[in-house]
């Protein structure tokens, strides 16, 4: 496969998208952000912008002319029907498509609520694989990253509140899980595109580190010199609450299902050493303490 230089990014203004764009620019890729006509998003200097109609293959084909790769960083709630993007990518000779798989591994996750809410991602990748099988020059890479660690701390989605020094601990708090920091994810995407032969048609898993809620709480208590209050949470109740919300069309249920799956005893979501693609992508494991210190100091 020839080298990849020109990369179009969907969702480039989002949390993951920004990190990906920064990493691509740092790696000397030529980056184009695809946005809706109504978008007022701004991007770093050097990023070209193409306004598109995501429901129109013709509009997308025009925007993807000359692009070697497409990276979708669309948020889960905005996944929708991405088939037109895939069809346009195939029609314009795009060599690599990285769909919005960032987060839990949609190929193997077992939480019923998450499986329901992630069907858009599952169907998109299934369609991409189908198109790749029919068009060998069109390849794909799936990338699962676990929770977004730095973003999760800053947004309190990891259940740690530095202002009140409280920690909501699901079940025992000992279940291992494997999160990633956003810049780490960006570097992984850039590396995938720098190694097109080694990463073609593969579903890869990365992680900044593997830890547990109790291990993180220990670091927090060491760094703050204080004992934090533990607030126990039952994963079964999280799933029940998620189902109640989902039945009413409340998609904040995603957080409940996600926490039950990632933190709940027996979730088994941690990346296995033999499945970890960090080495393949030239990524060095990170230390959670570094990110925690930055969060406590207000730098996230």
UniProtKB/TrEMBL annotation:
Keywords, alphabetical: NADP, Oxidoreductase
InterPro entries reported for this sequence: NAD(P)-bd_dom_sf, NmrA-like, NmrA/Isoflavone_reductase-like, PCBER-like
Pfam families given in the database record: NmrA
GO molecular function: oxidoreductase activity
Full protein name: NmrA-like domain-containing protein
SUPFAM superfamilies in UniProt: NAD(P)-binding Rossmann-fold domains (SSF51735)
Domain NmrA-like as annotated: residue spans: 5-240
């Amino acid at each position: 496969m020839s080298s990849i230089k020109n990369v179009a990014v969907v969702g480039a203004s989002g949390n993951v998208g920004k990190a990906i764009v920064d990493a691509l620019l740092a790696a000397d890729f030529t980056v184009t952000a695809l946005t809706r006509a109504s978008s007022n998003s701004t991007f770093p200097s050097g990023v070209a912008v193409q306004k598109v109609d995501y429901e129109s293959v013709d509009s997308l084909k025009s925007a993807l002319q000359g692009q070697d790769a497409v990276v979708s960083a669309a948020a889960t709630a905005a996944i929708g029907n991405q088939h037109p993007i895939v069809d346009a990518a195939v029609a314009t000779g795009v060599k690599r498509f990285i769909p919005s798989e960032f987060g839990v591994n949609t190929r193997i996750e077992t939480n019923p609520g998450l499986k329901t809410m992630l069907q858009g991602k599952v169907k998109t990748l299934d369609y991409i694989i189908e198109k790749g099988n029919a068009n060998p020059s069109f390849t794909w890479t799936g990338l699962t990253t676990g929770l977004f660690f730095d973003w999760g701390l800053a947004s309190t989605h990891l259940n740690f509140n530095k202002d009140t020094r409280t920690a909501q601990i699901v079940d025992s708090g000992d279940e291992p899980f494997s999160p990633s920091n956003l810049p780490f994810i960006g570097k992984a995407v850039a590396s995938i595109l720098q190694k097109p032969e080694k990463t073609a048609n593969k579903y890869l898993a990365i992680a900044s580190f593997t830890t547990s809620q109790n291990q993180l709480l220990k670091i927090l208590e060491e760094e703050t010199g204080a004992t934090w209050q533990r607030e126990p949470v039952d994963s079964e109740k999280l799933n029940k609450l998620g189902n109640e919300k989902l039945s009413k069309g409340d998609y904040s249920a995603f957080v409940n299902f996600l926490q039950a799956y990632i933190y709940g005893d027996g979730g088994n979501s941690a990346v296995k050493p033999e499945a970890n693609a960090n080495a393949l992508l030239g990524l060095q494991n990170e230390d959670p303490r570094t990110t925690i210190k930055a969060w406590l100091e207000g730098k996230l």
